[in-house]
Amino acid sequence: MKVPSPKSKNEWKPLGLLMSKVQDLYTTVRDTLGGMGIGMDIIPWLAGDGKKSLVEKLKALGTEFKNTQRIRLTGNKNLIWVNLDAPLKLPFDGAEPKPDQNAPSGWVKVELKKGSLYVDGKKIVAHLDEGQKDGKVMQGHKLAEALTGKSVEHPNILDALLELPHLVPDELKKDGLGRTIYLYFWAVKFRDRDGGLYVRYGCWDGGAYRSDFRWLDGHWGGQGPAAVRAS
User: Fold this and answer.
1) Torsion of CA 174, 165, 206, 93, to 10 degrees
2) Domain of life here (predicted)?
């Protein structure tokens, strides 16, 4: 008998993972229904009189699942869809999300095209307020006020870039002086237990796209632009 090569062994991994998930699903169904005193006799009922109820519940589960999806891939590696209504990733334990009143929502198209990043066809620019230019700095709360009315970007876009860093264009990695850009996603702020507000950012560091957060009591200079959809 021929011993399978490492490559052919690896080809079986997806099937093994699928079988493992099927086993987990079986265990959940068995324990849930078994705990209610229901056995295999439910199967003929589900295939008959209970089919309509099963379909309705499966549709509800499907809708709930779709709402948790953050990214949908396409056949184009430079084009994805991002769900801005998907559950937010919290920057720290106990963080309370505080979305802006006009924060974008729904599924949006994110595309890397001709060296720039676009969201729903609008280019993402690294926006600096006048108070951040020419060596000046702005306190975070004042900067947040100055950004009112701007199409600031959502942190779910940041998480998509963290997962698919090839979508980050060079123009959002370093500024004209060759300095690292710390790109802030202001559409959602996060409050801690003491009332302090924070905002998440992404930066290109050590050959990878990374994320962190910053307290609004701090100050923002020329390396801390906001991710904004150009008008």
Assistant:
1) 100
2) Bacteria
pLDDT averaged over 10-residue windows placed end to end, the chain, 231 residues:
56 85 91 92 91 90 80 95 95 97 95 98 98 97 97 98 97 96 98 98 95 98 98 81
Residue 1: per-residue pLDDT: 44
Q: Which residues of 156-181 are buried (b: 16+ CB within 10 A; e: fewer)?
A: bbbbbbeebeebbbebbbeeeeeeeb
User: 94: which 2 tokens?
Assistant: 């106990």
CA 61 to chain centre: 21
- Candidates 118, 65, 57; CA nearest to 87 is 65
Q: What is the pTM assigned to this prediction? A: 0.77
E strand spans, 26-121: 71-73, 79-83, 96-99, 107-113, 116-119
Which tokens sit at 33? 């229904």
**Half-sphere exposure for 192 (CA within 13 Å, toward CB):** 13
Secondary structure class of 77 (helix, strand, coil) = coil
Tokens at 84, concatenated: 């801005």
Give the helix, strand, coil percentages of the chain, each rounded to 5.
Answer: 35, 30, 40
**Every domain of the chain and the residues it spans:** 71-229
